[in-house]
Amino acid sequence: MAMVVFGAAGGLGCAITERLVHEFPEQQVIAISRQPTKRRIAGVQYIALGEYSEQSLSQWVSNFKQTGAQLDGVVSTIGMLHDEEAFPEKQLADITADNLEKLFAVNAAAPMLILKHCQSLFDKKHKAFFVQLSAKVGSIEDNYLGGWYAYRASKAALNMLLKTASIELKRSHKKLVVAAIHPGTTDTRLSKPFQKRVPEGKLYSASLSAKRIVHVIKGLTPDKSGGLFHWDGVKLPY
Ligand SMILES: NC(=O)c1ccc[n+]([C@@H]2O[C@H](COP(=O)([O-])OP(=O)(O)OC[C@H]3O[C@@H](n4cnc5c(N)ncnc54)[C@H](OP(=O)(O)O)[C@@H]3O)[C@@H](O)[C@H]2O)c1
Q1: Are residues 162 and 194 in contact, defined by beta-carbon separation less than 8 angstroms?
Q2: Domain of life here (predicted)?
Q3: Chain-centre distance of CA 147, in angstroms?
Q4: Do 186 and 205 contact (CB within 8 A), yes or no?
């Protein structure tokens, strides 16, 4: 029995790894990141993939199959809002094809490659989950503020891709839940440049968000597959 976290070197990835160990002591928790993680949690198996490419994911899947372990769940925390070159757009004039491509690659394409490669690891007869962290700002219906074009659009694309995959997988994997979860504004590298604007009491620690996310995961049932959920478990509109 194993649960896997992708993006394990990130703020939420690290905290969710720790929370899964706490909540599911019987599980082997596997923490996957591009580079080796600095922080190590006792009992966790750490794997550095280099990149989230078809080749590295396919290699990991074939290594995992050789262990004979059953995959009970995947949490992917992969996502980006900014880096040295890309910063969220305030206006139309800030949009560049490079930013759009980069954010779509990390926020929408990479999670789907993970799901694509992991699907063969899910036992069709067992309950399992595939959870990807998304963001409320990716909700089209809930967009009242504008801005952050590439991040919003790439998360909206992610939500559509996950929903589409959930429909396909409902046919083959009746007990598998595919879900997107919004963690709430959490104190990590991703939110650092924007934390001053967060209302008091609305910036959560990674450990609190991880606790809430794992609580939502525990409540997921196959009929909820394809949904986008707030950290309190309430279903969000697309
Ligand atoms: N923090 C917030 O306030 C907040 C709010 C809403 C939604 N979210 C979502 O929550 C998730 C986790 O975010 P976080 O706050 O923990 O941020 P974080 O600390 O920056 O972690 C993000 C993770 O995404 C992966 N990543 C980042 N850039 C990448 C790239 N260029 N290529 C491939 N992988 C890349 C990294 O994986 P490695 O571990 O392999 O390096 C990293 O662990 C994201 O999907 C984010 O959109 C966060």
Answers
A1: no
A2: Bacteria
A3: 22
A4: yes
Question: By alpha-carbon position, which residue is closest to atom 32 of ligand 1?
Answer: 106
> What are 94-143's pLDDT values in tens digits?
999 999 999 999 999 999 999 999 999 999 999 999 999 999 999 999 99
Site to substitute for ligand 1 among 12, 46, 51, most atoms within 8 A of C-beta: 12
Q: Are strands 2-6 and 71-76 parallel, antiparallel or unpaired?
A: parallel
Q: Which two tokens stand for residue 98?
A: 């490079």
Q: Per residue in 51-85, pLDDT tens? A: 999 999 999 999 999 999 999 999 999 999 999 99
* Three-state DSSP class for residue 199: coil
The DSSP string of 178-195 is EEEE---SBSSTTTGGGG
Please give the Cα distance from 134 to 183 (Å, whole number). Answer: 8
Please classify residue 57 by burial: count the beta carbons closer than 10 Å to its beta carbon, then call 0-12 exposed, 13-18 middle and 19+ buried. Answer: buried
Separation between Cα atoms, residue 223 and residue 170, nearest integer Å: 9
Token pair 């620690």 in the structure block, residue:
205
Gap between the Cα atoms of 30 and 2, Å rounded = 7
**Sign, Cα dihedral of 133, 206, 64, 34:** positive
Domains and CATH numbers, the chain: 2-229 (3.40.50.720)
Q: Whose CA is nearest to atom 30 of ligand 1?
A: 106
